Amino acid sequence: MRSGNSGRPTRPRTAWTGAEVNLAAAICAAQFAVVVAVRWVGTFDDDHHGAGLGGVPAAVGLLCVLVLGPPLLAALGLLHTVACTMPAATLARLARRRAPGPEGAWHTGFVLLLGTFWAALAVALPGPAPTGAEAVLLAVSGVPPALGLARARRRERATGRPPEDGRVRLRSALVALGLCALVAAAGAAGLATGLIREYEPPKLGADRLTGVWRGDHGAVLRLRTDGRAELSAVPAQPEFGDVTTKEFTRCDGVGKWFLDTAGRYDPYADGTVSERRDGVVVRVGDCGHDTYWTIGGTEARPELFVLFGDPDAGDLRILRRG
Known about the structure:
The chain is built from seven helices and ten strands. By secondary structure, it is an alpha+beta fold. The protein folds into two domains: 18-193, no CATH class; 206-321, no CATH class. Strands 3-4-5-6-7-8-9-10 form an eight-stranded antiparallel barrel. Strands 1-2 form a two-stranded antiparallel ribbon. Helix 1 packs antiparallel against helix 5 (143-159) and helix 2 (55-95) packs across helix 3 (103-124). Keywords: Membrane, Transmembrane, Transmembrane helix.
């Protein structure tokens, strides 16, 4: 409690000041930028299914990230602030009226409580759910802004000056840029030293490929041990069409299949060993051309996929064991 001119204690304020909101939003934006950088490094060992190899679309995508990334991160930081950080600050100030303890501790406890609520809501809502690690990160995402606000309040009490908005944004941007560069450098060093291994597709023999593979829209591909293939709504290269177009047909019927380990039937193979991937050639006489299903995924969870159209912006179709 603080005392006014009358000598009587005044209640702690519950309103959000502009300086606090801007500081919390800047810290949130900085941490989101670092999370994006860490997530990007984490994709080094992912199967990209032959997509996004570069070219004009990749250059345009990078330009969009550089131009639209900062305002998008700023908007996300502000959204997080008004949904988690500042409501927790209000609850902390209200709690101090009836219970002892430092405001910073109360604030941290409430941001963890609100963060857990939002993480649970994200998991429960329909649609793509966050992974366990992503849910935990969402639950604790309010802690760095809460710690930053506590430090700023201590500094304001010592100096009598609130944090300057321009300086806060500049420092947060510089910290985010430095941490992102550090993460990228660590990822590059991990690749160079072998600590991070680039993705390698599994090597599957014919015995591992036989069975049932399922995809979207009811696609079912049965690969028999005798070389027969039974198709139901399975995507296939159209009989008349260019391999660089996204168009494809869906096949039903019986055909043949065989394993190609030399990449002779891969329409995107450039002839180098490093780019060669094993695949399954599915041939149905009365339904389009041969379709090359590239082997992907992992040893434990293999996949068959085909990319219709340009590698940078094609239509990806995946079959999984089922």
